[in-house]
Design a protein that fits this description.
By secondary structure, the chain is α/β, with parallel strands linked by helices. The chain has one domain: Purple Acid Phosphatase, chain A, domain 2, CATH 3.60.21. The chain contains six helices and twelve strands. It has helices spanning about 40-50, 70-80, 105, 140-155, 170-185, 210-220; strands at about 10-15, 55-60, 85, 115-120, 120-125, 190-195, 225-230, 235-240, 240-245, 260-265, 270-275, 280-285. The strands form two sheets. The protein has a six-stranded mixed beta sheet. The protein has a six-stranded mixed beta sheet with strand order 4-5-6-7-9-8, with helices on one face. Helix 1 packs parallel to helix 2 (about 70-80). The radius of gyration is 18 Å and the shape is globular.
């Protein structure tokens, strides 16, 4: 990763991929999922990224659809990337045998399920929305009971995001997030939060406790944006000048990929979309222009 001036004068540029969801299986035409095609789509995206002066490339979860054999096929494609590759954990990344689930972060080259990276006055905070879920924690983990209880309450309330294929962050991760936000404020850094799951606008794909996490995010005036995947159709919202961007899924459609190059600096958050992804020019808050 490059060094240099603050991102306001020396913009940070990152590549974005969401939901490759690769598997060597026939497409699901009803859901418009073309799993096997993600190998060439990812290779195409990496070719695009390699031609650009990027600081890193972030994959926003669901590298695979199922089975560790899928990881063995798709991870070598990332080896062609000239830039650092960072990953976010998605729900489908845990669609493997139960005993294999604890090894998934390591198989993606992740040192921890959640982490942060600082770059020229910009802090990327990566969250694990599968932390409390009915599918990711290992057998016997108390987070299973916590997840079942949370989901039951939300379903009783009729919450649109009360789906078994969603999850949320746990107490330990929430405390860590609060600490990292405080560090960013103390350092005068801008913050980009990256998660597989959205928190805004309201949607069936959101984290279970999206409202509480949104309140926390909005309480920190250094937050510039929240980037996520999970909703393959894409989405966008803005609250108090903070941008909430859902990037489109790569796995959708048989013949068109979806990836983006995001430039953060010069007063703008500029998204150059490729394939199905939408291009956007979004203003940064006044203090970061």
């Amino acid at each position: 990763m490059s060094d240099g001036l603050d991102f306001r004068q020396n913009p940070v540029r990152i590549g974005i991929v969401a939901d490759p969801q690769y598997a060597a299986r026939a497409p699901n035409l009803a859901m418009n999922r073309h799993y096997a095609e993600s190998l060439w789509k990812l290779d195409q995206a990496i070719g695009c990224f390699n031609e650009a002066p990027l600081d890193l490339v972030m994959t926003l979860g669901d590298v695979i659809d199922r089975d560790v054999e899928s990881l063995a096929a798709i991870m070598p494609v990332y080896e062609g990337l000239k830039h650092p590759a960072l990953f976010v954990l998605g729900n489908h990344d845990f669609s493997v045998k139960p005993l294999q689930r604890p090894a998934i972060p390591g198989m993606l080259g992740m040192l921890a399920p959640w982490y942060d990276v600082s770059l020229r006055g910009l802090r990327f905070i990566v969250l694990d929305g599968n932390d409390v879920s009915t599918f990711a924690p290992p057998a016997g983990d108390p987070r299973h009971e916590e997840a079942a209880a949370r989901l039951a309450v939300l379903q009783g309330q009729g919450a649109v995001q009360a789906k078994a294929w969603n999850g949320t962050i746990g107490t330990v991760q929430r405390r860590w997030l609060e600490e990292r936000l405080a560090l960013a404020v103390a350092a005068g850094e801008g913050v980009i939060l990256c998660c597989h799951y959205p928190i805004f606008p309201q949607d069936q794909h959101n984290l279970w406790d999206c409202d509480a996490i949104l309140d926390l995010v909005l309480s920190c005036d250094n937050v510039l944006a929240w980037f996520n995947g999970h909703n393959h159709a894409g989405h966008y919202g803005i609250v108090d000048g903070r941008h909430f961007v859902t990037f489109r899924g790569m796995v959708d459609t048989p013949d068109s990929g979806a990836h983006a190059i995001v430039t953060i600096g010069d007063g703008q958050l500029r998204i150059a979309g490729f394939g199905r992804e939408i291009s956007r020019d979004l203003a940064l808050p006044a203090r970061f222009r």
